[in-house]
Amino acid sequence: MCGIVGYVGPQQAAEVVLGGLSRLEYRGYDSAGIAVADATRIDVRRSVGKLANLTALVHRQPLAGTSGIGHTRWATHGGVTEANAHPHLDARGEIVVIQNGIVENYLALKAGLQSRGHVFSSQTDTEVIARLVGEAYEQTGTLEGAVRQALTQLRGGNAVVVMARREPGRIVAARLGNAGGVVIGVGAGEMFVASDVPAILDHTRRVMFLEDRELAVIEAAGARLTTIEGAPVTRQPMSIPWDPVSAERGDFKHFMQKEIFEQPRALTDVLRGRIDIDGGRIVLDELTLDDDALRRIERVCIVGCGTAWHAGLVARYVIEALARVRVDVEYGSEFRYREALLGADTLMLVITQSGETVDTLAAMEAARAAGVPSAALVNAVGSQAARLADAGAIYLHAGPEIGVASTKAFTTMLVAAYLLALRLAAVRGTIGDIAMRQHIQALIELPGHVARLLETPQIYLDLAERYHTVASALFLGRQVNYPIALEGALKLKEISYIHAEGYPAGELKHGPIALIDRNVPVVCIAVRDAVYEKMLSNIEQVQARGGHVIAIATAGDDHLRRTVEHVIELPETLPLLTPVLASIPMQLLAYAIAVRRGADVDQPRNLAKSVTVE
Ligand code: G6P
């Protein structure tokens, strides 16, 4: 959702803040704004649309000063207008506020403020915070005290960052709930604050994360942390292993393309140090549960959103097949409002790239309340999910993922889930030594297979040329590749805006077959596995209705080559690992079609990379 960047130090703040915001463009936003303070004044610039509009405005009307805060907005309350863009000001124009999240009781607060004579200049909930801080400032006389006082009145989850004209060189940042992270970057004689690590990676890798209900007073010399109530908090900075180069697009046309091509490296990294080849075992030291506890697990409850939910569906097949444990998979937004039964022998397993998705975090809170341990398959180092995972955070090591459509995070989620399944299988005695070694061998070969799959871009360009004008597409798969059909459809619709549906192929006859005609391409994942013959029947049913089949097949499948219009071949691997390979054509196809249609691949309309509001 909204992106936040702040700076205090010797440099001109506008440059640092705008540079940081440009690193967050991938989050998705509709307007942007910045406030810069010098010794005597605070100036604000705001602009609708892309960050380039704000940058151009700041060029025309420069901002001088060495402390500043900036924001990219994803509209929740009030339309996309300059007046609704952040920062928002208090009644005297002395306090500037940016926010990520939602003030759930803003209507009641606004009514109270209006009855005290406030006239609002925006429709946002954030302006309510600015007004409250402004009122409190008159009483407390300090920004820190005023923010504290204002925050006690808010309900909901918020990351709030504030400056005051009378306190130049100081930023107050606070976090309430899970609506968005606040990371503080520690430099030499300068400090940063942001919603996401990539915003400040150009400047520092030493960071501190704010926890729920914590507040930081940030000055060039350092940051002082307390709880909202004022109790001191001691926190040492940690080091983020990502380097700024990995957050650059390089020679690639889009971040999504770069991230697709990074997968051989990402898959190598997710395996690194986790396979003991000589011992024939999986090493997942991050799991804090001992072998006895792992043996006692009777149910794994997987929660995720979007692409991560698809990874969860694959994980269900893999964990149930290998470790023989019952698995349920649920969307975070559904799980959190259900009266879910979380028994003592349940393991909560959340899957999340950003580690900040508010609905996924809610499942972890529910698990904690029920006394159930949570583990996380998570990419963003130090994110809230990683910190809440009392049973261990298993990092994906995919590096920063910038493209809104998830690619390398997805395939590393699949592999991390596979590693976890093998670890569970070993401790529960559901896998023998020989089988374990076969799985390990197959995992080791996986990055090379993916690299080979990335060597044939022409096939996707041809398919894009042929199908980029269709109105609708279908994706079919069975069993462990059914979620890959869902993911293929999601990839296509989110970046090309073509209507696409993923289905388990066995459901074809129960409805979607009615959609098939000569204008509908149907992507069928038909690898050689236990349901291969069934997929062949489904393919014939599609062809009989004039649908154009794009088959994702195992290398050397002469039958499909002879009978199907388009065939994309996957290197041979174990059936449970085919989803990793089948994902690659899904990504490349969606990417090629979106580019052919001239779509904004990295920042698709209406979407956000990190969904921190409900
Ligand atoms: C957003 C993103 C998706 C992502 C989902 C879950 O919708 O656009 O790409 O799959 O959130 O995000 P997470 O960070 O929890 O994996």
Write structural notes for this entry.
This protein is α/β, with parallel strands linked by helices and 614 residues long. Helices cover 36% and strands 23% of the residues. The chain has 19 helices and 27 strands. An eight-stranded antiparallel beta sheet has the order 3-2-4-1-10-9-11-15, covered by helices on one side. It has a seven-stranded antiparallel beta sheet with strand order 5-6-7-8-12-13-14. Strands 19-18-20-21-22 form a five-stranded parallel beta sheet, with helices on both faces. β9 and β10 form a beta hairpin. α7 runs parallel beside α13. The protein is globular and about 75 Å long. The mean pLDDT is 94. The structure holds 6-O-phosphono-alpha-D-glucopyranose. 6-O-phosphono-alpha-D-glucopyranose (G6P) binds next to α9. The site of 6-O-phosphono-alpha-D-glucopyranose has 15 residues, from α9.
